[in-house]
Amino acid sequence: MKKVFGLFILFAILLLAACSDDNASGESDGKDSDDVVELQWYMIGTPQPDTDKVMEELSDYTEEEIGVRVNMTQIDWGDYEERMRIITSSGENYDIAFVSGGTYTLNAQRGAYVGLNDLLDSHGKDVKEALHPDLIEGASIEGELYGIPANKEIGNQSVLVFNDNLVEKYGFDTESIETFADLEPMLEEIKNNEPSFSPISAASMFRPVMPFDYVLGWNMPVVFPFNGDTETAVNLLETDEAMETFKVMRDFYQKGYVPSDAASSTDPWPYNVENWFVRIEGYNPYAELLWERDAGYPVKVQPLTDPIINNEAVTGSLMAISATSKHPEEAMEFLNLLNTDPFARNLVNYGIEGEHYEKNEDGKIVNLPARGERYSVPQYALGNHFILDLFENDPDDKWEAFQEFNDSGVRSPSLGFHFDPSPVRTEIANVSNVASEFMPPIFTGSVDPEEHVPMAIERYNEAGLQTVIDEVQKQYDEWKETVGE
Amino acid sequence: MKAEEKPANLSKKRRKKVRNPHHFSPKTNIIMTVLLGLSAFLCIFPFLYVIIISVSSEESLIRYGYKLIPEEWSLDAYSYLWNMRGQLFQSFGISLLVTILGTVISVLMITMYAYAISRPQFRYRGFFTFFAFFTMLFNAGLVPLYIVMNQFLDLRNTIWALILPLAMNAFYIIIMRTFFVRSIPEAILESARIDGASEWRIFFKISVPLAVPGIATIALFSTLGYWNDWFHALLFIDDPNLVPLQALLMRIENNLEFIRQNTELGGAVQEIYATVPQDAAKMAMVVIATLPIALTYPFFQKYFISGLTIGGVKE
After folding, report:
1. In principle, which of A283, B126, B140, B220 could form an S-S bond with A159, CB 3.0–4.6 Å?
2. Hey, which residues 108-167 in chain A have their CB within 8 Å of chain B?
């Protein structure tokens, strides 16, 4: 009996010890802040064993430069959004967080982030200069910027990617292709002669390329046309262009160019399995090198659209300062440094020189095994790309090509318009339910558009799509006026 | 479902020996056997399927989809897991530690609490019964839990964040209380008291041994609960050294979901995709995550059956 009782006491002590230990460290963190500020920084990505080590190195540098230390906590891809939602609602005093897309707009509108306009002028002049002006303008919500966008490619360009082995074999002229429909003869030949290849690689997330700006994201059928009347929000399904595209897809599907289970499949069609002929991808300069590295065989790229600078493209990766932060100025100074100082940026991206990477005689980065195993972080989420050192197999003019790509971008009419969904929340939920039911079969051509598009329109209207469109239009007009002023 | 079919099987065996006069007619016996056999098959089949997928080659999975007899067998998935054994063993160890420590703590706390509120001599039993019962009806939700664990107790990135939230369970307390009330006659305790036993001695020497079936039942529930818990790890654990096995699986699954929903990220998605295991490897992980707990089941089964019958009957 004594033994069991002793065991119980032991647990109680252990428990207390665990609590008090952590409490003590928590307090000492607070005390530290009197001399050197330590910034808490949340980043998306699989937690890496060497993160703390790299942060130690970075902190030594930043402490010297701007007098702050940095602690980065990584949260895994799929968990990040949920975790940040809880962290934000719990009112935790973190300083910097990665954020993207709709979450950014929503949190900014709710007041979860500090407005950065004044901070940029007082503590972030360099980063303001370094960023492409379209990025700042596009990511601003009602004139106020709430996150520092990563300076990288800022256009969404849709391209066709071909399996070059097959292109060579049949001598196709891919450069003459301008629209998806032009693919027909090639698809036919592949279908007839290459039974083990799927002519088009498509799964349930497949979206045919259409000249529309999806203001509420890919999943909502509320669009501004790129051609004609670009100021009026419409239902995607009611446009002639969409109907035409759907008919082409239907034709392709019936001829067997699209996998028969495309509407329900979640197959990501990895490049390393050579079982496809053509696919649609989002492009950035030299992406083909990346794809070829994955694939192990050559691919060929043919653009379908210009790079389009829209909200989706400019809010793909931002770093926001929390409204609960006790050190917003220091946080801004750090973001300023991270986005303009090549040493800091390269350190965060590649790890420690000599440990995670080394430089070859051209001054290019060569990964050491430790980088893959112990410090592999997402480049796109960590800030300015243009000050990054190049990889050994990167082309010398990589960043020039990015600059060119950005300069050739076409601004979408709704760039900078951020919809506030709160007045029509219910309708949006209903509409997106209908969308997930109807759109994959229609997009992949699995059903007859003549019959199913009117059905979908009817269901959309029952779900309140018109209310959403009206609200979008109303907010758009109001926004247009404020921008005009 | 497993739980339902097992007791029937067992009692069938016993019946043959004892010639129980209350046994089923042969016809009913056949029907029941077929029905239970069918439901047993339904339970086992998905797991068999998982095992088959885990030994299929990735190439054939992509080309032909999931098949009962794969086009090509391969142990690649397991060699992939062997390559990531560092993380895997680490997670396995954490799962094991959390499960064992958690079950011990949880059983100890629940049993004591339940025992106290089962004794009529305890003056505040009404209050404490209600105190536990109340949490079954009303739940503060996620954000308060996060605030308490993270800001008051500062338990983030400790194994206590995985153990404490599951340690007390009002439902198990009620089960145990009922068990104590029904299985321990007041007279035994009284005789012990007359012999001069202290309350602790009565509890550990008389009440606990008498309540073993009930304790084993909640121990099994707790073990399953701890072993299968991934949610608290998702909330409170960032340190890769502290991630339990199920959370590791869940992260892979969540990451795949993330990739599906964020196809527009382009290059970045390919980067992530390269770090996520393929189908066969995922299934192999399911196999190694499920086997240990499936193997412990038979050891508990004996108690489990007698324990289950109590939970259903009111005092």
Report:
1. A283
2. 156
Chain A residues lying within 8 Å of B272, measured CB to CB: 77, 378
The CA distance from B207 to the nearest CA of chain A, in Å, is 13
Residue in A29, A71, A79 to test binding to B, most B beta-carbons within 10 Å: A79
Interface residue B37 vs chain A (CB under 8 A): no
Same-domain status, A9 and A96 = no
Per-residue HEC secondary structure of chain A comes to CHHHHHHHHHHHHHHHHHHHHHHHHHHHHHHHCCCCEEEEEEEECCCCCCHHHHHHHHHHHHHHHHCEEEEEEEECHHHHHHHHHHHHHCCCCCCEEEECHHHHHHHHHHCCECCCHHHHHHHCHHHHHHCCHHHHHHHEECCEECEEECCCCCCEEEEEEEEHHHHHHHCCCHHHCCCHHHHHHHHHHHHHHCCCCEEECCCCCCCCCCCEEECCCCCCCEEEECCCCCCCCEEHHHCHHHHHHHHHHHHHHHCCCCCCCCCCCCCCCCCCCCCEEEEEEEECCCHHHHHHHHHCCCEEEEECCCCEECHHHHCCCEEEEECCCCCHHHHHHHHHHHHHCHHHHHHHHHCCECCCEEECCCCCEEECHHHHHHCCCCHHHCCCCCCCCCECCCCCCHHHHHHHHHHCCEECCCCCCCCCCHHHHHHHHHHHHHHHHHHHHHHCCCCCHHHHHHHHHHHHHHHCHHHHHHHHHHHHHHHHHHHHC
B134 CB within 8 Å of a chain A CB: no
| Whether A90 contacts chain B with CB within 8 A | yes
Tell whether B109 lies on the interface with A, counting CB pairs under 8 A: no
In terms of domains, do A25 and A37 share one?
A: no
Same domain, A22 and A42: no
ipTM value of the model? 0.74
- Please tell me the predicted confidence (pLDDT) of residue B71: 78
Q: Is residue A49 part of a domain?
A: yes
Chain A residues close to B235, C-beta within 8 Å: 83, 86
Residue A265 forms contact with B (CB below 8 Å): no
Nearest chain B Cα to A267, which residue? B62
Q: Do B155 and A19 touch (CB under 8 A)?
A: yes
CB contact under 8 A, A86 and B272: no
In a domain, A80, yes or no: yes
Question: Are residue A11 and residue A53 in the same domain, yes or no?
Answer: no
Closest by Cα among B62, B5, B64 to B38: B5
Domain-ending residue, one of A382, A400, A418: A418
pLDDT at A470 over 90: yes
Say whether both A44 and A19 belong to one domain. Answer: no
Q: CATH no. for residue A316?
A: 3.40.190.10
| A58, A138: one domain | yes
Q: What is the mean pLDDT of residues A237-243?
A: 92
CB contact under 8 A, A90 and B200: no
Domain tally, chain A: 2
By the CB < 8 Å criterion, does B158 face chain A?
A: yes
CB contact under 8 A, B251 and A271: no
Domain that holds residue A337: 33-154+312-418
Percent of chain B topping pLDDT 90: 26
Residue A98: pLDDT over 50? yes
Q: Are residues A24 and A46 in the same domain?
A: no
Are B253 and A196 within 8 A, CB to CB?
no
**Could you say which residues from 399 to 438 on chain A have a Cβ atom under 8 Å away from some Cβ of chain B?**
none
Whether A140 shows a pLDDT value over 80: the answer reads yes
Chain B's closest residue to A25, CA to CA, is: B154
The single-letter code of the amino acid at A205 is: M
* Residues A98, A1 within the same domain: no
User: Is there a domain that residue A69 lies in?
Assistant: yes
